[in-house]
Automatic annotation (TrEMBL):
Organism: Zancudomyces culisetae
The keyword Glycoprotein appears for this protein: no
Protein name per its UniProtKB record: Ubiquitin-conjugating enzyme E2-18 kDa
Pfam families, A to Z: UQ_con (PF00179)
Family annotation (InterPro entries): Ub_conjugating_enzyme, UBC, UBQ-conjugating_AS, UBQ-conjugating_enzyme/RWD
Active site, UniProt feature: C86
Zinc in keyword set: no
Amino acid sequence: MGGIDCVSLSPPFHLQRNTSISRESRLKIKVCLCVYKFSGPADTPFEGGVFPAILKFPKDYPLNPPTMRFTCKMFHPNVYENGEVCISILHPPGEDPNMYESSSERWSPVQSVEKILLSVLSMIAEPNDESGANVDASVGIFI
């Protein structure tokens, strides 16, 4: 089974637990980054691979979702050529202008980083080829 290895951590949720950082210092933080490594899930084309990704938190987190980008080449239907991950949980809250996904599938402030990571791991194992960020991967690798 694939897994997640947190390599470096400095996201906002850790800062909130750290009482030694003043409120003023926390408010000055504009963007926080986390670096994760995903192990390719068994019985998938990604088995045995290690895929580093960056989770970038916006200054208005948790009202808006972080973005995730793989820092290695990733030929996957739900990953753009620049490595950006395209899954519902990382889409801004509200109604989908394309009317493809319901608002309950999109980001909300109650979502957790753990849920994002598990969603990405699930996405690696079971791509959604109907919502292709990379059309070539949608029709190529998963036929």
